[in-house]
Amino acid sequence: MWAAKISAQTQSFISLYKEQLPYFQELITGGQYGESPLNYEGHPYFERRNFEEGVLSINQISYTDVQLLYDETEDEVVTFHPIYKQKILIKAEKIQEFQLDQDHLFRRFQGNEKYTYHRNGFYQVLKDGKVKVLIKHYKTIEPTKEVGKYPYKYVEDQEYFYWYNDDFVPIRKKKQAIQSLGLQKKEVKKYMKAKDLFFALEKERYILELANLRENKSEGFNGLLK
Predict the structure, then answer these.
(1) Which end of the chain is flanked by fewer CB atoms within 10 Å, N or C?
(2) Hey, which residues does 142 pair with through a beta bridge?
(3) Are 44 and 72 in contact (CB under 8 A)?
(4) Cα-to-chain-centroid distance, residue 108
(5) Which tens digit of pLDDT belongs to each residue from 41-50?
């Protein structure tokens, strides 16, 4: 019964695969994906190592229920080929955006190529307004301190950015975040005090609220300041 259930699921997945992505091989296959070494602690993926049913946008067309993984070390999007039963890469240049678990939207941006971890240009979109708030998720491989089963480990990090008209500004300090949006320290202090919000304690929320404050101002916005 178990084998029959798995077989039925596989057949259903193959049918969906053919229906949703009829030109999958020709359009977006970037080759077979190389698995990470078994003796590395952790995994290279965003949040979890198992495939999720996501949404993939290519050429203004959104494909739903696509099995997706996001490799943070290589900045690559991976899917599963149900016929050949292997992980395959999706060509980064074909992808406009993808969504994981309904809550995490990633989009491909250009203009930040000098940034070390830009790579293929996938950033999570936290705020999709005139001024966008982006996160760059990335993982590096570092040696473990103890000799044992795992000589190396995956270490995760992230960096926040404001984006406006193809221009990126990394957000590392409160003062720099305020100045980049052309805001005044006094008005920001009053605004954040009313929300009981502090940069050091809730950095992500603070950055998002700064963008909201900027967008709600009546005067025009001429661009990010560096």
Answers:
(1) N
(2) 153
(3) yes
(4) 9
(5) 999 999 999 9
201: which 2 tokens? 């304690």
Contacts of 200 (CB under 8 A, 6+ apart): 174
Q: In a 3-state reduction of DSSP, which class is residue 222?
A: coil
Chain segment 190-207, per-residue pLDDT in tens: 999 999 999 999 999 999
User: Can you tell me the distance from the alpha carbon of 94 to that of 57, in angstroms, rounded to the nearest whole number?
Assistant: 9
Contacts (Cβ under 8 Å, ≥6 apart) of 3: none
For 194, the token pair is: 């009313």
Is it the case that residue 90 has pLDDT exceeding 80? yes
Which residues, other chains included, contact 74 with Cβ-Cβ below 8 Å and sequence gap of 6+? 44, 119
Could you state, in order of their start, the residue ranges of all structural domains in the chain?
2-171, 172-226
Contacts of 39 (CB under 8 A, 6+ apart): 149, 150, 151, 152
pLDDT of residue 137: 98
Burial of 76 (0-12, 13-18, 19+ CB in 10 A): buried
